[in-house]
Give the backbone structure.
Amino acid sequence: MSVKKAFFRRLLEFLGAGIGAVIAAFAIEEFLVPCTILDGGVVGVGIMVNHLTAIPLGILTVVLNIPFLLIGARKMGKMFILKACWSMLIFSVFLEIFKPMVSATSDYLLAVSFGGVILGVGVGLVIRFGGCLDGTETVAILLNKKFKFPVGQTVLIFNILIFAAAGFMFGLDRAMYSLLTYFITSKVLDIIESGTEQTKAAMIITNDAKEISEKIYQNLGRTVTIMQGEGLVSGKKVILYCVLTRFEIHELKDIIKTIDSSAFIAVSDVSEIIGNHVKKKGRLHVEEPPEVQPGTAGETEDISIQKQ
């Protein structure tokens, strides 16, 4: 990929993430906040703190996200953190811009329905273009990498605690409205982001298997299975297989495009994972895949990617 194309692609990604952040800020300030309906994650905490202290929600969003970004800075990759900071900054600025405007509705059911849908569209666009609005997602991904806790369930548990606190502060009905908004947002987010599951499986056909595998391990902390295959027309090929979260798909695409722009990538949903892959400490070592013997087309062999 040429430098010019790479620049414009990155520019479009930041633009798309910024547009998503603006849409999400509009949903928060024009639908949810006026009806005291909480979003999940850091924004939900910010709304509660804003109610108690009158500190602007835009400032609270930035300040409360900083610890989560610092935690994930070394593990999530520089580009992910850069896009997350950009998205959060745009989101915070437009929260303050939309704040003086007249709210779209005072009807709770309309606020939940339309606010949840619009928020899902905004957050979905941010994630689709590689950004992030909620620092709790980065912590959830890190917990998934280290302890295999499902990202979706971790975020859900965190949000349930926030909604429970909202129930004590604003009443049980607000907590239920907030929980309903969360589920609507999640469903719309899945549609926009093009995936209904938190866990994805990626199959990559490439001629640069070793370099891509090492980069995936270094940037995402995900191990890769290397298999040998043979195309009907293209001949012998190396196939990489790895399982990761939906938040890492964009980073995976970036890694592959920078190394082998002609690689073939197939991403699919994973409904269930059985068994654990324990990663050893030490230096990463990637063995070269063995040669495929005549008459063995279609057979696969699991080549170890291990740390010694």
